[in-house]
Recover the amino acids of this structure.
């Protein structure tokens, strides 16, 4: 087993043995620890887990979606990626235009009520089909607000301009690799209330030394 995978398994063991039970917005609850860190040397190979199923194509298409600066699920659905559907669907079923069956608290209800789950799946399928086929509908209800892509590629300034953080950090890595400002942040306090989901990977920093590039990610 690789060192990278062993780190993951050790962290899981740590969480189960010493974690704290916490409530969350979904009502599911979590067991968590705070401030742990894992390190991966990519020279030793890509740290893809083998002890759990990892949908790599979904990860890749989501990352490309972020890097494009896109914030609409239409691109994701075009690539058979359903990771962000529920947040957009929630906005649709809570809108004045929605006339279907009551979808209040659909996530939890679908798990507990088989009859409702059938209704939910039908409405979700109709929603996805309409996002793909109707550009106007997608523009109105496929949009997730100021999520990762917007913050990474078009951070809004107080002067009414935008900052392309990804483009800027790439240029800095090329021109000023010793800079301690090689940072990209997705956590914009002003925009958090308008986001479908506030950023989980909130910021990352690059470090260049001896011709090698390192990256450190902070996950909330």
């Amino acid at each position: 087993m690789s060192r990278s995978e062993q780190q993951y398994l050790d962290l899981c063991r740590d969480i189960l043995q010493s974690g704290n039970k916490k409530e969350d917005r979904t009502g599911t609850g979590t067991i968590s620890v705070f401030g742990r860190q894992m390190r991966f040397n990519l020279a030793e190979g890509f740290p893809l887990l083998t002890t759990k199923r990892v949908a790599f194509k979904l990860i890749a298409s989501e990352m490309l979606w972020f890097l494009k600066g896109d914030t609409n699920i239409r691109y994701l659905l075009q690539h058979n990626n359903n990771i962000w559907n529920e947040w957009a669907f929630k906005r649709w079923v809570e809108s004045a235009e929605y006339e279907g069956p009551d979808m209040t608290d659909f996530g939890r209800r679908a798990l507990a009520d088989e009859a409702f789950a059938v209704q939910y799946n039908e409405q979700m399928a109709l929603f996805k089909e309409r996002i793909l086929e109707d550009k106007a509908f997608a523009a109105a209800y496929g949009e997730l607000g100021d999520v990762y892509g917007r913050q990474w590629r078009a951070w809004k300034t107080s002067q009414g301009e935008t900052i392309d953080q990804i483009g800027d950090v790439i240029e800095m890595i090329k021109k000023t690799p010793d800079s301690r400002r090689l940072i990209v942040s997705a956590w914009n306090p002003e925009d958090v209330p308008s986001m479908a989901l506030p950023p989980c990977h909130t910021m990352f920093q690059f470090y260049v030394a001896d011709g090698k590039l390192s990256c450190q990610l902070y996950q909330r």
